[in-house]
Amino acid sequence: MIGxxxxxxxxxxxxxxxxxxxxxxxxxxTQTxxxxxxxTAQTRLENRVRDPNLDNLVAHYxxxxxxxxxxxxxxxxxxxxxxxxxLLSKWAPHAGITTIAAGDLFRKYPHIFEVFTHPVKRNxxxxxxxxxxxxxxxxxxxxxxxxxxxxxxxxxxxMMSVNGRVHLHALRLMRTELGLPxxxxxxxxxxxxxxxxxxxxxxxxxIDGNGVSxxxxxxxxxxWRKKEYVEKWLSEFEVKYAFPIDFPTGFKKEPGFKEKLKNxxxxxxxxxxxxxxxxxxxxxxxxxxxxxxxxxVIGKRGFGGVERYExxxxxxxxxxxxxxxxxxxxxxxxxxxxxxxxxxVNIRELLLKHPGIFxxxxxxxxxxxxxxxxxxxxxxxxxxxxxxxxxxxxELILLGNRHTRELRTERELxxxxxxxxxxxxxxxxxxxxxxxxxxxxxxxHDENDNLN
Length: 452
Description:
The chain has 3 domains: 44-128 and 387-415, Orthogonal Bundle (Arc Repressor Mutant, subunit A), CATH 1.10.10; 133-206; 220-274 and 304-382, no CATH class. The protein is built from 19 helices and 11 strands. It has helices at residues 41-46, 52-77, 85-91, 102-108, 130-145, 147-160, 168-173, 175-178, 184-189, 221-231, 236-239, 257-266, 284-295, 306-323, 331-334, 347-353, 385-399, 410-420, 436-451; strands at residues 83-84, 113-117, 124-128, 165-167, 196-200, 203-206, 328-330, 358-361, 368-371, 375-376, 379-380. The protein has a 3-stranded antiparallel sheet. It comes from Capsicum baccatum (Peruvian pepper). Residues 49-401 form the PORR domain.
């Protein structure tokens, strides 16, 4: 009897797992569930139409901010007008400069930094150029001279608040954007005690806010509305509650978008300086109910209810941005005014909802919101003295390695040599110091060639 040979097939271990069936003629009955794309504030921020002019401006100002941080750090050490390159390399990360070495920083911005050799220790040192330092001093002087404008800005923010009070830390965070002096608490708030009053260590109150003239409590947007009403002969119904709209290039309008925007422009709202709303600290829901009942619409989801409340928040943010020096501010600093200015909505989502009025730039670490109507091709339409000085400092950075031959003239070399060998700088005169100017000329010539 012949035995039957049985072969047992073994599955190879290297066979990959079966891939899911793709849709085709033989599996047409297979059901595939498609996920609905997420529509969040983050996705809207990533998919928005970008403005390259404002993005480039933010990138340039970020460099200026890092250099200003480095200047503040060097000035606080009180080691004199110069510092060694080796020591500055250790301080640079504390100022936020982590992606570039100190030597590359000096070669990249020769109009900001001046590199020289110490006449005694013979090590490389650097200092900020006089032109850059003079711009900083001029900005400081202009801020101190514009004392009345600083009082006006703080007073207007207090007039927009719920009960005439604002936390001091919110103003302190926006000090640079509002053009306030560094110690504005002593120079403005305490000095003008007939206008402001310190309720607490961190709370400011406006004294007799109802006694202010009506012309003072007029929003910046009203001047644009008046111009549109007079020059374009538009009806008051079309202009009274409208905002200037300027969409970025490439913005796609969905069907029905123009009609919705037209209805939103006509929608009335409680203006920022109006005192019709309750001044008590009530709940957000009760404030919304009050606006809804005033508009005569039943239900919170009516077009006259929540939409009116959001439009008032847009007007408040619009007015705050109009009070700033450069019509821009980081979004996170705006969030500190939410409770004081009665903005009980998500500020980031509200800004993204109105791309024709605001623009959020994500160039850099922080998100910065711009007032679109105030800028044209990356420049402020109505400049001011503080903006002009900051723009001049920015232009020194943008020069890069161009026009470096004009930086060091023969007269500057003589003045620098005289200052370096002077006893007032703390250096003792030694025998043989007459040789230092000769060596200085050779070393400075080589360094100048490297910068170019």
